[in-house]
Amino acid sequence: MDFPYGEAEIAHLRSRDPKLGAAIDRIGPIHRGVDPDLFSSVLHHIIGQQVSMAAQRTVWQRLQTAAAPLSPETVAAMSVESLQALGMTYRRASYILEFARKVASGAFDLKALAEMEDSQVLAQLTSLRGVGPWTAEMLLIFGLQRPDVVSWGDLAILRGMRMLYRKRTIDPAFFRRLRKRYSPYGTTASLYLWAIACGALPELTDPAAKRAPEKKRGAVHDR
Q1: Comparing C-alpha atoms, which of 88, 112, 108 is closest to residue 99?
Q2: Distance CA 110, CA 36 (A)
Q3: Whole-model pTM over 0.85
Q4: What is the DSSP letter of 214?
Q5: Residue 23: which of 197, 192, 207 has the closest Cα?
Q6: DSSP string, 79-130
Q7: Which of 10, 44, 145, 180 lies 20 to 30 angstroms, CA to CA, from 63?
Q8: Cβ-based neighbour number of residue 59 at 10 Å
Q9: Percent of the chain clearing pLDDT 90 (strictly above)
Q10: Contact status, residue 188 vs residue 176, Cβ threshold 8 Å
Q11: Which of 222, 157, 168 is nearest to 196 (CA)?
Q12: Is the peptide bond before 147 cis (omega within 30 degrees of 0)?
């Protein structure tokens, strides 16, 4: 299942931001998977913090096997040590166990999040140990599929903005203007900014990239 967006979102962004609109037309449709099971989505994001995608996949597969069928109850029945043995740090294992036990006991109501405003969801999620603002915003996108999320804390979003708008830095005021411009379809804009940051438009380099030493001029810059 991919993040849902269509012509209405694209038409809005084209009308509000011709530069982004032109980039969207060149890049074409973007397919980013989502996980509507918010419990597994939270676990997946906690596991993935500050580790490579390969490491995240390995630990995630091990957890799915160890706690099959994956649920708050099966994870809550595990120990911190058994979770840590799957390849995660002790701290992350404790975050996961604490979260699973809160959900299993009813102390944290995941289903209620679907009815809350974005700001309320962020407040609830960041009350969990191991879930900071960036992780909570990613859960808004990839768990709850909220349409208007542009994360100030996401380095790739800022990189995409620098590349698209030819800025050496993105200050908070400029970021707020862009976020307001994209609204109410900021998440769709985020998908394209991520793509730009990853090289979807090869001629766009990052203006913030360090200038190569004199003897190495002409080398291909990081894109």
Answers
A1: 108
A2: 11
A3: yes
A4: G
A5: 192
A6: -HHHHHTTT--HHHHHHHHHHHHHHHHTSS-TGGGGGS-HHHHHHHHHTSTT
A7: 145
A8: 20
A9: 90
A10: no
A11: 157
A12: no
Q: Where do we find the tokens 């996401």?
A: 154
Task: For residues 122 and 64, give the distance between their C-alpha atoms in angstroms, rounded to a whole number.
Answer: 26
Cα distances from 116 to residues 36, 40, 155, in angstroms, run 16, 19, 27
Reported for 5-13, long-range contacts at CB under 8 A and 24+ positions apart, including other chains, are 5/147, 5/185, 5/187, 5/188, 5/191, 8/185, 9/147, 9/185, 9/188, 10/188, 12/184, 12/185, 13/182, 13/185, 13/188, 13/189
Q: Is 209 left (phi over 0), alpha (psi -120 to 50) or beta?
A: beta
CB 154, CB 169: distance < 8 Å:
no
Tally of residues, the chain: 223
Q: What is the rounded CA–CA span in Å between residue 72 and residue 223?
A: 41
Q: Please answer whether residues 139 and 128 qualify as being in contact, where contact means their C-beta atoms are separated by less than 8 angstroms.
A: no
DSSP secondary structure code for residue 37 in this structure? -
pLDDT tops 70 at residue 223: no
Q: What is the pLDDT of residues 86-108, one digit of tens each?
A: 999 999 999 999 999 999 999 99
For helices 186-197 and 172-182, angle between their N-to-C axes, nearest 10 degrees: 120
Q: d(Cα 55, Cα 60) in Å, to the nearest integer?
A: 8
